[in-house]
C-alpha cells in the first residue's frame, strides 16, 4: 500500500495557507481558537502588569505553577461534566459533593482513624483517598439512579443534591473546620513538598514525549493497514513537534520555580546542614497536576477509544436511536453520574489537601466554574458534542481570569465575577458563530 | 415462487398491545417465510408500526406469541431481537446525527481490538466495503451523518441492517424520504435480499410499491388485521378497499 497523502489537499488550490495547514495536520480549528484565546488572556494580564504596574507577574514560573495547581480540582471535575452535558444532563451538585466528601475524608483521617491506627500511620492517607473517591461515586450513583430509573430531571435531582450535600457537610462537623489533615495526604494538594522535583519532572517529560511519538506512529500504522489517506509526513512532524514542545516548555517552567527560602531552611535543617550558597531546588510538577493529567488521559481514552465513550456520544446525539441500537441508556446514565461523583471525590481530596483542612465551604460554587469550564471548552448544552481537552482548556481560561484579576489588583470578588460572566457568554457566542460558519 | 409449505421464519400469533386503554394492536396474527416479502398496510394509526416494534424489541407485547423458525422466543428489548438476527430499518432511521457513518453502522456492536478498545480503522474499512456495495457513490465517511442527504442517511441505515447477516428484516417506509433513483436502488436491494433467503416485513403506504415488491400483503385497520392476500391474486382496488373500508375480498384469508 502506498503512503498517499490527502488527495483533497492537492486538488483544492486557492484555499488559504492556514486552512491548508489545518487540513494537513488535522488540528481542530476550535482547539486552536481556544489555545489562542488562552494565550491572549495570559499575555494581556502580563502586559497590563508590565505597562501599568511596572512589573509583569503573570507569565512567571511562580504564577504559572500556581495556576496549574489551582486548575487541578476544577479541571478534573470538568472532564466528567463533559460526559454529563453531552448526554443532555446537568450536574449542579458537584461543588456540594466536594464539600461533603472533603468533610468526611477530613473527619476520617483527623478524628476517626488516628485513635484506632495511631497518628501518622502511613495507611491513613490511602484509606482516606479510597474512601473519598468511593463516597463521591456513591453519591453520584444515587443521583444517577433517581435520574435514570425514576425519570426525575437531572437539573432537579442535582439542584436538590446541591442543597442537601452542603447541609450534610455542615452537620457532619457541626460547622467546625477539620484541620490539619494527614501529612502525606496534604501532599496531594501540591505545595513545595507536594511536587516531584526537577529530576522527576524531566523523567515524566521524557515518558510523555515517548508516548506522543508512540501514539503518532501507531495512528499512522493503523491508517496504513486499512489503506486510508495519511497525513503528509511533514504534518506528522509538526503535530508531534508542537505536542512535545508544549511538554518540554511546561517542564522548563515548573523546574524554574524554586522553593522559597523558608522551605529551603526547613529542608536543610532537617538534614542537619546550613543552607548552601545559591541553593536552588525546583518544585517540578505538582502532584495535583499529575493527577489531573492522568485523569485527562484516562477520560480521553474512555471517550475516544471505548464503547462506553461511543455510547455517551450516541445518547447525546439521539437517545432514541441509542436505545433502539440496544444500548442500555439508563445504566449509562447511572454510570456517568457515578463517574462524575468519583471525579468530584478526587477534586475534594485535592482541594482539602491543598487547604490542609476540611471546611464546610469547600467547593462552594465550584459547580458553576465546572459547568462554565466544560461549556467554554466547546461542550454543547444541546448534547452530543464535547471534548475532554476542551474542558481542560476551558478550566484553564476561567482560572486564569480569576487569578489574573487578582494579580493586576482587581482581586475584589465582584470584578472577577463580572469578567468570568462576560467570558462565559462571549465564549459560547463565538462557538455559535463558528458553528454557523462551518455550515 | 415462495415456498410456504415448511415452517415459517416468523410467526406473530395473537399479538396484543395497549397503551392506556387504547388497543393499538388487537389479537393480530401474521407469518413470514424465508425469501418472502410481506407488506403491512393500513392508515396511519392502524397499528402496523406498533405490531412490528413488538418484533424489533422497541415495545413489549402484552400478550401473544412470537415464534422464530417454529421456536417460541421472548423479545424484551432490541438486543433480544438482534440476537435472533432480526434487523430493523426505522422510519426515523434511528441514526445518531453527531456520529459518522461507521459509528452509526456499528452502534451497539462496535468492533474492538484485543485490548477491548474500539477499532475505529477496522470499522471504517468495513463500512467502506459495505457502502461500496450498497451505494458506490457514498464518499462522506468522516463527517457526522447530519451532514448527509436523505438518501445517504437512508443507505447508512440500510447498511446497518444488512451488514450483520440479518435473517429477518423489518423496513418501516424505507423509501418515504427518497428520490426516484434511490427508491429504485432500495427495490433492487429488496429483490437481492429476497434471493438470499431473507424474510422481509415491509411497511409501505404506496400501493404500487407493494404490488411490485411484496409476495403477500397484510392489511390492518384500528389495530386489527382486516385480512391477508396473495398480491398476485388481487388488484390495487381490492387492497384499497381493505385499507379504506376494511372490506375483505373473497381471495383474502
From TrEMBL, chain A:
Keywords: Cell inner membrane, Cell membrane, Membrane, Sugar transport, Transmembrane, Transmembrane helix, Transport
Parts of the chain that traverse the membrane: 31-53, 65-85, 92-110, 122-142, 149-173, 193-216, 237-259, 279-302, 336-356, 368-385, 392-411, 417-434
An annotated GO cellular component: plasma membrane
Record's subcellular location: Cell membrane
UniProt key word Cell wall biogenesis/degradation: no
Annotated membrane topology: Multi-pass membrane protein
Organism superkingdom: Bacteria
MF term (GO), any: transmembrane transporter activity
Keyword Cell membrane: yes
Its biological purpose: Part of the binding-protein-dependent transport system for D-xylose. Probably responsible for the translocation of the substrate across the membrane.
Name this protein carries in UniProt: Xylose transport system permease protein XylH
Automatic annotation (TrEMBL), chain B:
Native organism: Fuscovulum blasticum DSM 2131
The ABC transporter domain, residue ranges: 10-247
TM ranges: none
The protein's name: ABC transporter ATP-binding protein
UniProt keywords, alphabetically: ATP-binding, Cell membrane, Membrane, Nucleotide-binding, Repeat, Sugar transport, Translocase, Transport
UniProt keyword Zinc-finger, yes or no: no
Subcellular location: Cell membrane
The organism's taxonomic lineage, starting at the top: Bacteria, Pseudomonadati, Pseudomonadota, Alphaproteobacteria, Rhodobacterales
GO MF annotations in UniProt: ATP binding; ATP hydrolysis activity
Gene Ontology CC: plasma membrane
Amino acid at each position: 500500500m502506498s503512503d498517499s497523502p490527502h488527495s483533497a489537499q492537492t486538488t483544492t488550490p486557492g484555499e488559504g495557507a492556514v486552512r491548508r495547514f489545518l487540513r494537513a495536520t488535522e488540528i481542530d480549528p476550535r482547539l486552536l481558537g481556544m489555545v489562542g484565546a488562552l494565550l491572549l488572556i495570559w499575555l494581556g494580564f502580563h502586559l497590563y502588569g508590565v505597562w501599568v504596574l511596572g512589573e509583569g507577574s503573570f507569565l512567571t514560573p511562580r504564577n504559572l505553577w500556581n495556576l496549574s495547581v489551582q486548575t487541578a480540582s476544577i479541571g478534573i471535575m470538568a472532564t466528567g461534566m463533559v460526559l454529563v452535558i453531552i448526554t443532555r444532563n446537568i450536574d449542579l451538585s458537584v461543588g456540594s459533593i466536594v464539600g461533603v466528601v472533603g468533610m468526611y475524608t477530613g473527619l476520617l483521617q483527623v478524628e476517626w482513624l488516628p485513635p484506632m491506627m495511631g497518628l501518622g500511620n502511613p495507611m491513613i492517607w490511602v484509606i482516606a483517598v479510597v474512601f473519598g473517591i468511593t463516597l463521591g461515586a456513591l453519591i453520584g450513583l444515587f443521583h444517577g439512579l433517581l435520574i435514570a430509573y425514576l425519570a426525575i430531571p437531572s437539573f432537579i435531582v442535582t439542584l436538590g443534591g446541591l442543597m442537601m450535600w452542603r447541609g450534610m457537610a455542615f452537620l457532619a462537623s457541626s460547622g467546625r473546620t477539620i484541620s490539619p489533615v494527614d501529612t502525606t495526604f496534604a501532599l496531594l494538594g501540591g505545595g513545595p513538598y507536594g511536587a516531584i522535583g526537577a529530576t522527576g519532572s524531566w523523567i515524566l517529560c521524557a515518558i510523555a514525549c515517548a508516548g506522543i511519538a508512540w501514539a503518532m506512529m501507531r495512528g499512522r500504522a493503523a491508517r496504513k493497514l486499512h489503506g486510508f489517506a495519511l497525513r503528509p509526513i511533514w504534518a506528522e512532524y509538526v503535530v508531534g513537534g508542537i505536542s512535545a514542545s508544549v511538554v518540554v516548555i511546561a517542564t522548563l517552567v515548573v523546574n524554574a520555580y524554586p522553593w522559597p527560602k523558608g522551605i529551603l531552611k526547613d529542608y536543610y535543617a532537617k538534614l542537619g546542614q546550613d543552607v548552601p550558597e545559591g541553593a536552588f531546588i525546583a518544585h517540578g510538577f505538582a502532584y495535583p497536576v499529575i493527577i489531573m493529567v492522568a485523569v485527562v488521559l484516562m477520560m480521553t481514552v474512555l471517550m475516544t477509544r471505548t464503547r462506553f465513550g461511543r455510547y455517551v456520544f450516541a445518547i447525546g446525539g439521539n437517545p432514541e436511536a441509542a436505545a433502539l441500537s440496544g444500548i442500555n441508556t439508563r445504566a449509562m446514565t447511572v454510570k456517568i453520574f457515578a463517574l462524575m461523583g468519583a471525579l468530584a471525590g478526587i477534586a475534594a481530596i485535592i482541594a482539602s489537601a491543598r487547604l490542609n483542612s476540611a471546611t464546610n465551604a469547600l467547593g462552594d460554587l465550584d459547580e458553576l466554574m465546572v459547568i462554565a469550564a466544560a461549556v467554554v471548552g466547546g461542550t454543547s448544552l444541546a448534547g452530543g458534542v464535547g471534548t475532554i481537552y476542551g474542558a481542560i482548556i476551558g478550566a484553564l481560561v476561567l482560572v486564569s481570569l480569576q487569578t489574573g484579576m487578582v494579580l493586576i489588583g482587581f482581586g475584589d470578588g465582584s470584578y472577577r465575577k463580572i469578567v468570568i460572566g462576560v467570558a462565559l457568554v462571549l465564549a459560547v457566542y463565538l462557538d455559535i458563530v463558528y458553528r454557523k460558519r462551518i455550515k | 415462487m415462495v415456498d410456504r409449505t415448511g415452517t415459517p421464519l416468523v410467526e406473530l400469533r395473537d399479538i396484543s398491545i395497549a397503551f392506556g386503554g387504547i388497543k393499538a394492536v388487537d389479537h393480530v396474527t401474521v407469518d413470514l417465510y424465508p425469501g418472502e416479502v410481506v407488506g403491512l398496510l393500513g392508515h396511519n394509526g392502524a397499528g402496523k408500526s406498533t405490531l412490528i416494534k413488538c418484533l424489533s424489541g422497541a415495545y413489549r407485547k402484552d400478550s401473544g406469541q412470537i415464534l422464530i423458525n417454529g421456536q417460541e422466543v421472548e423479545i424484551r428489548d432490541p438486543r433480544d431481537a438482534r440476537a435472533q438476527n432480526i434487523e430493523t430499518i426505522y422510519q426515523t432511521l434511528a441514526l445518531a446525527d453527531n456520529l459518522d457513518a461507521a459509528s452509526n453502522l456499528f452502534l451497539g456492536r462496535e468492533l474492538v481490538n484485543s485490548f477491548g478498545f474500539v477499532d475505529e480503522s477496522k470499522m471504517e474499512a468495513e463500512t467502506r466495503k459495505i457502502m461500496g456495495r450498497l451505494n458506490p457513490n457514498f464518499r462522506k465517511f468522516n463527517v457526522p451523518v447530519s451532514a448527509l442527504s436523505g438518501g445517504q442517511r437512508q443507505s447508512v441505515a440500510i447498511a446497518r441492517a444488512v451488514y450483520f447477516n440479518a435473517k429477518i428484516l423489518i423496513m418501516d417506509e424505507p423509501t418515504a424520504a427518497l428520490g426516484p433513483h434511490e427508491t429504485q436502488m432500495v427495490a433492487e436491494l429488496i429483490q437481492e435480499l429476497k434471493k438470499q433467503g431473507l424474510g422481509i416485513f415491509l411497511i409501505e403506504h404506496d400501493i404500487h410499491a407493494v404490488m411490485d415488491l411484496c409476495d403477500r400483503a397484510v392489511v390492518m385497520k384500528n389495530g386489527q388485521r382486516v385480512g391477508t392476500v396473495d398480491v398476485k391474486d388481487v388488484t390495487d382496488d381490492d387492497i384499497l378497499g381493505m385499507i379504506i373500508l376494511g372490506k375483505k375480498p373473497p381471495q383474502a384469508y
